[in-house]
Amino acid sequence: MRGTVERVFVLGIDPGLTRCGFGLVEGSLEGDRPAVAVRAGLIETDPAEPVEARLAQLGRDLARLYAEVTAEVVVVERVFYQRNARTAIPVAQASGVAIALAEGSRVRQFTAQEVKLAVTGYGAADKAQVQAMVARLLGLAEVPRPPDVADALALALTYLAVARTEARLEAPTP
Fold it and tell me: Which CATH class name applies to 7-170?
C-alpha cells in the first residue's frame, strides 16, 4: 500500500526591478500527479522613480504576496550572467529583496539554464519553448503572459523536478 502523496506549494519569483513575475504552483514531490498553477502575476514598479523607492515598493508588494500565499518553498532565479551590468545590478537587487523577505520558507535558486533544462530538457531552449512547456506541464489553455510570469512558473516547476530527483537519490536502496 502506498503512503500519502506529499503536496507542496512552490512560489517562483522571476526577479526584476521594473517587472517581477511570480507564480504559485501546487505539486507532488512523488511526481504522480500533475502540478497545478494556483496563482500567477506581475509586480511592477515605475522606472521614473528612484531605485530606492522602487526597491521599497517591490519589498512591500512581495511582503504582501508572501503573506497572502502559503508557500513552503520560494524559488528565485539566480543572476548568473548578464551582458549588461546596468540590467544585472537591478535584477540582483530585486533578487536580494525577494530572498530576504522569504523568511520562514525554504529558498532555492536556479539559473536560467537550469530552468530551461528542467522544463524543456534542453539547457539552451529559447523563451518560446520554455513558455510552451510551462503551459503544457501545467495544463494551461494558453501560454502565461507576460514572459516574466511564465518564467516564474517555470522556476516553481524546476524546483519540483529537482526535488523529486533529489528525493530519489537520497532514498535508501532496497
Answer: alpha beta
